[in-house]
């Protein structure tokens, strides 16, 4: 049985999430519901939960700062948030979960199932280190992304990713050291978070690291030559935007 705590400053959202979680009572029980981070910290110390549902935007102390103040995070976290793209990107690069308000039932079910998987893998500490690093680090080259591959979670520096290739329902990451990591997500699942960190989708089948562009060869859409001498086609409809973003040669 998963023992969970809700930390949410909005009474309506807190009550609604509690009612939604009641449908999962065979697997999960809510042992406390807190209206602010201070009470949340006390409740976590007292109850030692397996999982917390944590609102990001709260007065005086946000959810991220609350977690930093705890230090030893030995529980799972599912963040809840209104639309905040910077925070969402940081969460996604850490392979952690979030729910957009108002919370959708299917999204909640998926988040709980993924939480169960993470409990088996026991990688939470490294995932939170990645999250805090990415939140504090404005330089895309110094950020890290957590990739849930077939053999577990790999933590990879953004600067070490050369390109990402579509591989059916999977995405294949090509690293500078010639290693590859296959992730059970599509290229589209990574496009937004990578685009915010100096990557660009040049084709339906490829996202590239703009810092590793060696040469652009003009043509209908053109061809890009990467630092490892890989040549990739640029889709005609993406050509103009790519040229604007391309490093000066």
TrEMBL record:
Alphabetical list of Pfam families matching this protein: LytTR (PF04397), Response_reg (PF00072)
Response regulatory domain ranges (all copies): 3-116
InterPro entries from the UniProt entry: CheY-like_superfamily, LytR-like, LytTR_DNA-bd_dom, Sig_transdc_resp-reg_receiver
Keyword DNA-binding listed: yes
Entry keyword set: DNA-binding, Phosphoprotein
Positions carrying 4-aspartylphosphate: 55
GO molecular function: DNA binding; phosphorelay response regulator activity
Domain HTH LytTR-type: start-end pairs: 145-248
Signal peptide segment: none
Family annotation (PANTHER family): STAGE 0 SPORULATION PROTEIN A HOMOLOG, TRANSCRIPTIONAL REGULATOR-RELATED
Protein's name according to its UniProt entry: DNA-binding response regulator
């Amino acid at each position: 049985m998963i023992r969970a705590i809700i930390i949410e400053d909005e009474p309506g959202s807190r009550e609604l999430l509690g009612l939604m979680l009641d449908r999962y009572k065979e697997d999960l029980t809510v042992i406390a519901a807190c209206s602010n981070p201070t009470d949340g910290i006390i409740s976590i110390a007292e109850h030692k939960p397996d999982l917390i549902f944590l609102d990001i935007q709260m007065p005086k102390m946000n959810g991220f700062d609350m977690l930093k103040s705890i230090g030893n995070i030995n529980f799972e976290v599912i963040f809840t948030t209104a639309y905040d793209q910077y925070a969402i990107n940081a969460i996604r690069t850490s392979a952690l979960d979030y729910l957009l308000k108002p919370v959708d039932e299917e999204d909640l079910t998926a988040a709980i199932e993924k939480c169960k998987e993470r409990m088996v893998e026991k990688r939470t500490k490294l995932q939170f280190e990645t999250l805090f690093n990415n939140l504090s680090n404005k330089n895309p080259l110094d950020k890290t992304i957590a990739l849930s591959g077939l053999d577990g979670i790999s933590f990879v520096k953004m600067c070490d990713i050369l390109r990402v290739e579509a591989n059916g329902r999977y995405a294949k990451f090509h690293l500078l050291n010639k290693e590859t990591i296959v992730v059970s997500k599509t290229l589209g699942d990574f496009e937004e978070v990578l685009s915010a960190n100096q990557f660009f989708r040049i084709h339906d089948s490829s996202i590239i690291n703009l810092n590793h562009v060696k040469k652009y060869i003009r043509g209908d859409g053109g061809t890009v030559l990467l630092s490892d001498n890989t040549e990739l086609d640029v889709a005609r409809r993406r050509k103009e935007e790519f040229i604007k973003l391309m490093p000066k040669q």
